Each structure stands twice: as C-alpha cells, then as structure tokens.
Amino acid sequence: ARNEHLAEYYWVSIMNHNVENRTLSHQSLRASFGAVGPGLLFAAAAVGVSHLVHATQAGASYGLGMFSIVIIACLTKYPAIRFGGDYASATGKNLIQSYRQSGLWVVLLYGIAQIFSMCFVISAVSLVTVGLIKSVFDLALSDTAMVAFLLTVVTSILISGRFHLLEKLTKFVVPIFTLLIVVATLMVVSRIDWSISNLAWPEITVSTTLFIIVLGGFMPAPVDSSVLQSLWVCAKAKDTGALPTMAESRFDFNVGFVASLILALCFLLLGAGVMHGTGVPLAKGAAAFSSQVIELFTSVMGQWTYPLIAVASITVMFSTLMTLLDGYPRIVASIIRELSPKHGERLAGIPTYDLVIVLLCFGSVTVITLLMNSFSAFINLTSVIVFVLGPILAYLNHRAIFGEEIPVASRPGLLMKIWSIAGLLVMTLLGVLYFYLQATNSV
What we know:
By secondary structure, the protein is an all-alpha fold. It has helices at residues 2-35, 38-46, 49-62, 67-91, 95-101, 104-137, 143-188, 196-199, 206-217, 225-240, 246-274, 286-301, 306-339, 352-370, 375-401, 414-442; strands at 346-347, 350-351. The protein has a two-stranded antiparallel sheet. α1 (2-35) crosses α11 and α15 runs antiparallel to α16. The longest helix has 46 residues, at 143-188. It is globular.
C-alpha cells in the first residue's frame, strides 16, 4: 500500500510539473506573439513595389535565375535592418537618436535625403495602388483624384487611430495577403521549369548587372527601414507601457523578415510561372505591369482566380502605403525633436505627426499633378539616395548596436558581427559598381 501511495505521489508530481511547464510554455509563446507588431509593419512596408514589381519582373525576365540572388540580397541586409529593433529594445530610443550622437551632420544628411524622397515614394506607391484599383474595378476616374481620395482615407485612419489601430490592421491584412499570395504561387509551381540549368544565374551583362543591383537594393527593403523598425518598437512600447525584451524584439522582426523573404520568392515564382518564356513584352510602368500580372495570371489559371490575385495585389500595395504614411511622419518628428527638442511633439500648436502626414499627402498629390513629366527622373534619383544611404546607415547601425551604450549581454554575437561587416562591404561594393556602370553607360 505504501509503494502504491508513493507511486501515486510521484505520478501526480510529474503531471503537475508537466502542466506547469506547458503553462509556462504557453505564456512564453503568448508573450512572443504579443510582441509581434513592428516586424509585421516592416513586412507590410517592404512588400510593395519592390516585391509586386521588381521580384515579379525578375521571374518574368530571368525565370529562376534570380532565385538565389533574391535570397542573398535579403540575407546581406538582415543584420543592418534588424539592428534597428535591437537598438530600440535595448535602449528605449530610436536610431535617429543614435545618429545624433555621431554628429548633427548625420541627422541633417539623413533628414534631407528622407524629406526629398518621401513625397516621390508615397506618390509612386499611391499611383501603383490606384492603378490596380482602376484596373480591377474598371474605373475611369483620374489618377490625381483617386490618389487624393486614397490618401485622405489612409490619413484619417492613421490620425484617428495612430499606432494602436495601425498595428491591429496590419495584423489582419498581412496574414490575408500572405495566404493569398502563397496559394496563388502554389497554383503555378507545376508550370515552372525546375531544372538545374534554369536555376543558374543569368548571363552577366551590363543591363543584367544593373537590374541585379537595383533588385538587391530594394530587397526585401532599403536599409533605412531599420529606422522605421526602431521607431515602431518605441511606438509599441509607448502604446503598451513596456519595452519588448531583446528576445521578443528579435522574434517579432524575424517573423516579419522571413515573411517578406518568402513573399519575395513567391512573387518571383509567379513571374516565372506565368510570364517567363511567353514572349509577351513586359508592360512599362509599375501600375501597368502590376495589372498585366493579374491579367496573365487569370488567363493562364482561369477566370475564377481573378479575385484571388486582384485582392492580394491591392492589399499588398494598400498595406505598404499605410505603413509608409505612418513611418515617414515619425521620422520627420524624430528629426525635428533632435534638432529642436521643444518642437518635437507640436508645431504651430498642431501635433507634429498630424501636421507632417497632411503635408506629405499634399506634397504627394502636388508631385503627381505638376511633375509627372519628370516623375521617372525623381524616382531614379530616389534610387540613387537608397544606394548612397545604404552602406552609411549600415555602418551607423553596426556602430550603434556594438557601442558602449548597449549592455554587453544585449549585443549580437561574433557571428552576427562578422555577418554585419560582410554585408556592409557587399553593399558598398555594389553601390560603387552601380554608379560606375551608370556613369560609363551614360557617356
């Protein structure tokens, strides 16, 4: 009887221990998913023109030849972008505050580059979104009117709900378009030539090299998205009243980064499965090309698939527009705060965030109205800014996360340090090569 009681006691103890472990495990998992937010915002901002247009064009033009290049490009920038969230979770500050410690000129350089390019980026994303909406719903409205209406809707959402509402919408939208795109990709997988020869890199010519560099520059997002990541981590901390731990921050970012990488490969496979080798000339312009992808996908896979790819494409662009329209005012507000602390929160009695987002929308509509003839030149100049800022910000991010301000326990390990330095060198070399090829081919 005594042995039976002992056996029962040990059995109950083991069961209670297992229950406690499961409870702790569930609590830990729930805490990790609760920290997810800024990483999904990163994915939503990244999966826009770079994926829908550039990645799809890569598949359409080169088949699977760009598959490994997309992976390498994303991995090259992983440390530099991740360090934004790492720095914010370790210090409670955003990267612009770190840049200020390197000198006022760094903040001014970054601010000028961002303020110059943001209206053109928002204009480009808005035009692609509107072009898709017009194509899908067969609307005959003018681009300017539709962009103005779309920006008004998004601005109203952001000003009324701020980060809390943005995060909730993103947690709803990103899983939806991810599922739709993955399903659409699975439908065309059987149409792709998976032979070893088709996986080989394309023949290296000047035009191919330039395409690869541009693709890599925007894949999965420019390095300055690290600043947005740090700002969103700080915004989430303000919204919840607590900074995420380093583990939670990295889990959150990895979820978003992996999602953006998978979606980049999905769009590449869509281009390879539906457009590569068909002989159909690719439409010029991001909006026209995006509409062409929807039409070709539908013609190949059947009319019933039209809503699938149409909804996926529109939600991708809408989420990108929404996150960028939230992120840019945060960047401007933070820059103003560093240059003039007393004006960081309010300008002329108006919250800086609200004022900047309205001015940004007005500027974007003005660009579309008055500068469409020179629009492509401005977009090309924006690309140049990306290539100039990329290595600089990668270096500043590296120095920030390995600086004395960060506790030793919170700093990345030796492998990540080597990875970061290697990525910085690659970005620098590609930037130099890009400018060299542009200069020699324009002469």
